[in-house]
């Protein structure tokens, strides 16, 4: 079984692996928070003694009772009740070598050898990379619904930034929930962590956040927005930063629909640093920009953000600053961002059916 999944808007190559390439099989949602340094306090209560009764032939020593972490205990219960997503999340979040981790790896006693993600072992939500281009999400003519949202006032002070970005994520959730549920894709709100300094960013994905203005971690389904790396004091219109927010939400849409897990598995089958691996990553990143453009275009149409093409030009200039082999050339970014922005239709964001030349760097 693998580790967490982090998807960065900006990629800094660290060693042999790009900074936005950690696996994410699936995970459960985290409440929206905006504390600078989110942490989980140790429990001060006595460990529960409720026994679980999964049937197991596992070679692991699986403890019969909970431990001392309420959050992991809850995942334990869900895993024992047969939820494969909870088992995978328990495996990812538990301390190395703990009873929690072995119980998650074992899928609550249902996978004795612990060699597969539980969602794959139990046949839940597993997609093949070759089939991504034919998903209903990418072939059914649907878009992000209106009307416009009442976003919190924009401003360059910390409180205003937090309020505005939080209201944008809430709006994105409201609009995308209608789209996804209409396609029978279960929807969950993402978590949101906004920090003033990237050094305060902590996530289960365990990445180095130097240079990344934002990233998405699928292990806890959370969007991380890093104010200092976003350069919010450089005089850009505050509306322009919402492109970053919308892009990261695009990764959440990919996560919920199973795209991220399938693409990640394929990328590591071919090698993340190979030309095919980078091509696979670009399909994911350019699609996230296209999904983000859908929401931005819709909100601009309703007069919430910039008026007319002015907004798109700001978004394009902001986003193409980050062109690289993973996120695509400036021309590719412009093509896919505009496809979402001006059409508001998911089939126009089908990067997985596009030719390599259409997702080039």
UniProtKB/TrEMBL annotation:
InterPro entries hit by this protein: Uncharacterised_pept_Zn_put (IPR007343)
Main subcellular location of this protein, as a coarse class: membrane
UniProt topology in membrane: Single-pass membrane protein
Keywords for the protein's UniProt record, in alphabetical order: Membrane, Signal, Transmembrane, Transmembrane helix
Location(s), subcellular: Membrane
Compositional bias annotation for Low complexity: 25-59
Signal peptide region: 1-18
The organism's place on the tree of life at top rank: Bacteria
Keyword Signal applies: yes
Disordered: region residues: 25-70
Name used for this protein in its record: Neutral zinc metallopeptidase
């Amino acid at each position: 079984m693998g580790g967490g999944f982090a998807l960065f808007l900006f990629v800094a190559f660290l060693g042999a692996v790009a900074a936005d390439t950690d696996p994410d099989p699936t995970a459960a949602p985290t409440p929206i928070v905006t504390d600078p340094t989110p942490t989980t306090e140790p429990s001060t209560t006595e460990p529960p003694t409720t026994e679980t009764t999964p049937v197991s032939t596992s070679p692991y020593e699986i403890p019969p009772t909970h431990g001392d972490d309420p959050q992991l205990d809850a995942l334990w219960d869900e895993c024992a009740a047969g939820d494969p997503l909870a088992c995978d999340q328990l495996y990812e979040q538990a301390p190395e070598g703990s009873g929690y981790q072995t119980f998650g790896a074992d899928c609550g006693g249902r996978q004795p050898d612990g060699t597969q993600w539980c969602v794959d072992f139990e046949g839940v939500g597993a997609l093949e990379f070759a089939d991504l281009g034919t998903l209903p999400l990418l072939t059914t003519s649907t878009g992000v619904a209106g009307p416009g949202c009442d976003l919190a006032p924009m401003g360059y002070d910390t409180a205003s930034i937090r309020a505005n970005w939080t209201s944008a994520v809430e709006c994105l959730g409201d609009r995308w929930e209608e789209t996804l549920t209409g396609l029978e894709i279960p929807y969950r709100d993402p978590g949101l962590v906004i920090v003033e300094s990237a050094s305060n960013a902590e996530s289960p994905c365990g990445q180095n956040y130097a240079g990344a203005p934002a990233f998405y971690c699928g292990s806890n389904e959370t969007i991380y927005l890093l104010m200092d790396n976003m350069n919010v004091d450089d005089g850009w219109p505050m509306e322009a930063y919402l492109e970053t927010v919308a892009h990261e939400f695009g990764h959440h849409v990919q996560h919920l629909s199973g795209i991220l897990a399938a693409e990640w598995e394929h990328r590591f089958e071919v090698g993340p640093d190979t030309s095919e691996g980078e091509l696979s990553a670009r399909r994911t990143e350019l699609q996230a920009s296209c999904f983000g453009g859908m929401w931005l275009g819709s909100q601009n149409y309703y007069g919430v953000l910039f008026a007319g093409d002015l907004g798109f030009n700001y978004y394009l200039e902001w986003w193409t600053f980050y062109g690289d082999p993973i996120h695509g050339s400036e021309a590719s970014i412009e093509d896919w961002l505009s496809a979402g922005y001006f059409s508001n239709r998911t089939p126009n964001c089908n990067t997985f059916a596009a030719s390599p030349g259409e997702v080039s760097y």
